[in-house]
Specification:
195 residues; binds guanosine-5'-monophosphate; single chain; four-stranded mixed sheet; Rossmann fold; alpha/beta
Length: 195
C-alpha cells in the first residue's frame, strides 16, 4: 500500500476552508485523516476536546514545544496553535492522507520540513466578502473579529507561497477544485475508491 500524502490547507478565518474540507472528508472518509491540533484558546460553543482541538493551557503548550512534540507551531490572534508530530507521521506511514488546516506561519514551517507536502491557500472573492462572512458568523465579539481581519490582511499576501490558490466564490465550485487537486496528488485514494 502507498504512503499517505500531507496536505496543507490555509486561508483567513471565515473564508470557508472548514466547509470544503468537511465535504472532502465525507466523500473520502476511508483514506483521509484530520490532524487534531493543540491550542491554548478556549473552546467555542459546540467544540469538543480531543475532537476539534486538544485544549491545553500555555504551560502545557510550552512543555510540548520543549519536548519537540510539534511538527509546527505558531501564535495566532493571541493564542498558540500546534500540530502534534507523532500522530501525523503515524497516519502517513499507515497509508492515510493527512490534512492540516493551519495558519500561514505554521504552514511555512511544514513546507520547509516536508517539501513533498501539497499546499493550498483558499482566498475570499474580496476582503469585503470576508468581513461580511466573519461578522455574520456571530460566534465572536467585535474585538476578536477585528483582530482576525487584521490577521487576514497580513495572511492574504502570503497566498503565493502555496502551490495552489483557490478563490472561494461558491462552496460547490471550490469543493470541485479542491477535490480535483486531491485526486491529482493522492495515491491511496485511487487504491481505495474507483475514481
Ligand atoms: P480558530 O481559532 O478559528 O479555530 O483557528 C485560528 C487559526 O489557527 C486558523 O487559521 C486555523 O487554521 C489555525 N490553526 C488551527 N490549528 C493550527 C495548528 O495546529 N497550527 C497552526 N499553525 N495553525 C493552526
Amino acid at each position: 500500500m502507498s504512503k499517505g500524502v500531507l496536505f496543507l490547507l490555509s486561508g483567513p478565518s471565515g473564508v470557508g476552508k472548514g466547509t470544503v474540507k468537511a465535504h472532502l472528508f465525507e466523500e473520502f472518509e476511508k483514506c483521509l485523516v484530520y490532524s487534531v491540533s493543540a491550542t491554548t484558546r478556549s473552546p467555542r460553543q459546540g467544540e469538543t476536546d480531543g475532537v476539534d482541538y486538544y485544549f491545553i493551557d500555555r504551560e502545557t503548550f510550552l512543555k510540548w514545544i520543549d519536548e519537540d512534540a510539534f511538527l509546527e507551531h505558531a501564535e495566532f490572534s493571541g493564542n498558540m496553535y500546534g500540530t502534534p508530530r507523532s500522530a501525523v507521521m503515524r497516519q502517513l506511514e499507515a497509508g492515510h492522507d493527512v490534512f492540516l488546516e493551519i495558519e500561514v506561519q505554521g504552514a511555512l514551517q511544514v513546507m520547509e520540513k516536508m517539501p513533498e507536502c501539497v499546499s493550498i491557500f483558499i482566498l475570499p472573492p474580496s476582503f469585503e466578502v470576508l468581513e461580511q462572512r466573519l461578522r455574520g458568523r456571530g460566534t465572536e465579539s467585535d474585538e476578536v473579529v477585528n483582530r482576525r481581519l487584521d490577521q487576514a490582511r497580513r495572511e492574504l499576501p502570503m497566498a503565493d507561497r502555496y502551490m495552489y490558490q483557490l478563490v472561494n466564490d461558491t462552496v460547490d465550485d471550490t469543493y470541485a477544485k479542491l477535490r480535483e487537486l486531491y485526486l491529482k496528488h493522492s495515491s491511496v485514494v485511487h487504491e481505495m475508491y474507483n475514481v
